[in-house]
Amino acid sequence: TGAQQRSAREIAGDMAQAVPMLRLLQGDVGSGKTLVALMALLTAVESGTQGALLAPTEILARQHHANLLTLLDGLPVRVGLLTGRDKGRARAELLGALANGEIDILVGTHAIFQDAVDYQALGLAVIDEQHKFGVAQRLELRHKLAEQRLEPHLLMMSATPIPRTLAMTYFADLDVSTIDELPPGRTPIVTKLIA
């Protein structure tokens, strides 16, 4: 949609700057936030860095992983999945591949920013349903490469509608992109406030 294209341009413009992006991408369920985030992740991969997509639950992380695999089918982009359930040899192999740069995009739960998880070069961190993570958790992911004096771009996504003036007050350090139209064929979303 036009709103997706506009948001993608805003994000690409931020990622081209010398300072790390801090942006909130908001839009209703079904508005296409994941596709816009994927475009940003591909920008990071194309520039020679890695991307991470953080989801609040294992179910959502697995859904994102499956969707990305479908959307990236046929492209030379390597996507990994890491959750708290992953243990032993499989986990060790995944972490080794991530540290060696053999994984381009890592999808997962809070497990993706634990101490044992090392990225070769994390260029973009995407946080889905950002309101479900605390400030300390978001900062852990942002500072994952602090020892290399690198800080990834940060894109947070939310389906919770936030009026622009409130968003500017609440997220004073963030730029805001809003997807305000649904792709064709989507059922309209009705948002209601009940006292």
Largest sheet: 7 strands, parallel
Instruction: Give unreliable regions as ranges.
Output: none
| Side-by-side strand order of the widest sheet | 3-4-2-5-6-1-7
Estimate percent helicity: 25-40%
Following the backbone from N to C, one meets helices and strands in this order, namely: HEHEHEHEEHEHE
Topology, number of strands: 7
Estimate the mean pLDDT confidence.
84
Structural description of this entry:
With 195 residues, the protein is α/β, with parallel strands linked by helices. Helices cover 35% and strands 18% of the residues. It is built from six helices and seven strands, in the order H-E-H-E-H-E-H-E-E-H-E-H-E. The chain has helices at 2-15, 33-46, 58-71, 88-99, 135-142, 164-170; strands spanning 22-27, 50-54, 79-82, 105-108, 122-127, 153-158, 175-179. It has a seven-stranded parallel sheet with strand order 3-4-2-5-6-1-7, with helices on both faces. Helix 5 (135-142) links the parallel strand 5 and strand 6 (153-158). The radius of gyration is 16 Å and the shape is globular.
